[in-house]
Design a protein that fits this description.
87 residues; alpha+beta
């Protein structure tokens, strides 16, 4: 039996907002502490001023990385729409 070697796929998403408060709300909403991250996926979310940098590392291959990015962007979109409705 031949074992497949582990593949690491990685992506970085950078988001910038006009208000630091918006940035903080988005970061808190999508922080890995707020939802369960599947085994083999690592997400690091950093905020510097009004910029959020999200790094995703996935040992499950490109398909899982893409699905994770899609889910994350959908969550971010929902947060942004909610914030816009409240302003």
């Amino acid at each position: 039996m031949r074992m497949l070697e582990e593949r690491l796929a990685e992506a970085t998403i950078t988001l910038q907002y006009p208000k630091k408060k918006t940035t903080t709300v988005v970061k808190k909403a999508v922080s890995p502490d707020n939802y369960r991250v599947p085994e083999g996926i690592e997400i690091q979310t950093l905020q510097e001023g009004s910029t959020i940098t999200i790094t995703i590392r996935c040992k499950k291959g490109l398909g899982s990385l893409t699905a994770t990015i899609d889910d994350l962007l959908a969550c971010i979109s929902t947060v942004e729409k909610t914030i816009a409705e409240l302003d």
